[in-house]
Specification:
It contains 14 helices and 13 strands. The protein has 345 residues and is α/β, with parallel strands linked by helices. The chain has two domains: 237 residues, Type I PLP-dependent aspartate aminotransferase-like (Major domain) (Aspartate Aminotransferase, domain 2, 3-Layer(aba) Sandwich), CATH 3.40.640; 92 residues, Aspartate Aminotransferase, domain 1 (Alpha-Beta Complex), CATH 3.90.1150. The strands form three sheets. The protein has a seven-stranded mixed sheet, sandwiched between helices. A four-stranded antiparallel sheet has the order 9-10-13-12, covered by helices on one side. Helix 2 runs parallel beside helix 11, helix 3 crosses helix 10 and helix 12 packs parallel to helix 14. The longest helix is centred in the last third of the chain and has 16 residues. It binds ligand TLP. Ligand TLP binds next to helix 3.
């Protein structure tokens, strides 16, 4: 069975150019700092994001975890949106491993955190309370619809954080999608944050890896934390090579994924019983809701679609997420729309 796989952009496979670069990559032992390909990727990433330094890590989860551990002490608090990935889907790692408390406030429908909510979440010195240390923003904001936080808004949050002596981390797993959607260089979206994680293995199609960027002393600290977490990799240039190809060749084409998401959304919105959710699509994510009068259960809906070669992800009762990416095109979009029509009729 050939699948039209809309579960996530994480399902993308490396391109032929990536496989070739991987085969030919000069490598060394990266724990000694000797891998020229990892060093090149880190330098390139830091330069693109406008940061002093960068570190290659195994996943977005590890990048966010290290960023929080490098920013906070045990008993410190990170304030973030209730729909943020670090709160929802990273297994509570910052609390499990770092003793860091997460304080969540609502995300507005457009993904933002309201300044008034941030203000009231901040703690002032009191021995009964954790210590507010960090704000985490996510761009694009996945669970709010893959929505884009505007640069000016992020600058506002950054100024707010600085005035209160807080750090700002940006989970930019899909920051290149945000940059492409806004038509702004990625460094403008990263400039206001103290640290930024971005993923190579999502829409950019590399097989493995994310990058954490920040000030040099912060990245030095991150290097030690990565080692503690068992994330010191040896001849990692083999996978970093694909990351370099991703940065050089796969960024601009994200616009194609965004255009395809619009086609998909249009097709889906015409199906009786389906409505679009969450301001989507602004980038490569389409969220849909099944009307209450649709009799098929959520599990049965996914199962019957799978039987027709279409994969998507449930995100809650009656809601589903479909993500466009390099490995799907118009043919898969049409197949998906037809399959959903068939299952609902
Ligand atoms: N997100 C995955 C799932 O975990 C939900 C997906 O399919 O979207 N930050 C954000 C905003 C993410 O969306 C993800 C992955 C991560 C961090 C974690 O990245 P990985 O999977 O590399 O640890």
């Amino acid at each position: 069975m050939i699948y039209a796989d809309f579960r996530s952009d994480t399902v993308t496979r490396p391109t032929p150019a990536m496989r070739e670069a991987m085969a030919k990559a000069p490598v060394g032992d990266d724990v000694y700092g000797d891998d020229p390909t990892v060093n090149l990727l880190e330098a390139k990433a830091a330069e693109m994001l406008g940061k002093e330094a960068a570190i290659f890590v195994s996943s977005g989860t590890m990048g966010n975890l290290i960023a929080v551990l490098a920013s906070c002490q045990r008993g410190d608090e990170a304030i973030m949106g209730r729909q943020g990935h670090t709160f929802l889907h990273e297994a509570g790692g910052v609390s499990v491993l770092g003793g860091v408390v997460i304080n969540t406030i609502p995300n507005q429908p457009d993904g933002r955190l309201a300044l008034a909510d941030l203000e009231s979440a901040i703690r002032y010195p009191d021995i009964h309370e954790p210590i507010s240390r960090l704000i985490i923003l996510e761009n694009t904001q996945n669970a709010c619809g893959g929505v884009v936080l505007p640069v000016e808004y992020c600058e506002q949050i950054s100024a707010f954080a600085r005035e209160r002596n807080l750090l700002l981390h940006m989970d930019g797993a899909r920051i290149f999608n945000a940059a492409v959607a806004l038509g702004r260089p990625v460094r403008e979206l990263a400039a206001m944050a103290d640290s930024v994680t971005f993923c190579l293995s999502k829409g950019l199609c590399a097989p493995v890896g994310s990058v954490l960027c920040g000030r040099r002393d912060f990245i030095d600290k991150a290097r030690r934390l990565r080692k503690i977490l068992g994330g010191g990799m040896r001849q990692a240039g083999i996978i970093a090579a694909a990351g370099i190809v991703a940065l050089e060749t796969m960024v601009d084409r994200l616009a194609e994924d965004h255009a395809l998401a619009k086609d998909l959304a249009e097709g889906l919105s015409r199906i009786d019983g389906v409505s679009l959710e969450k301001n989507s699509p602004q980038t490569n994510m389409v969220f849909i809701r099944l009307d209450q009068r649709v009799s098929v259960s959520d599990a049965e809906f996914e199962k019957q679609l799978k039987e027709r070669g279409v994969l998507l992800n449930g995100t809650g009762p009656r809601t589903f997420r479909l993500v466009t990416h390099h490995d799907v095109g118009l043919e898969e979009v049409n197949r998906c729309v037809e399959a959903i029509k068939a299952v609902l009729n």
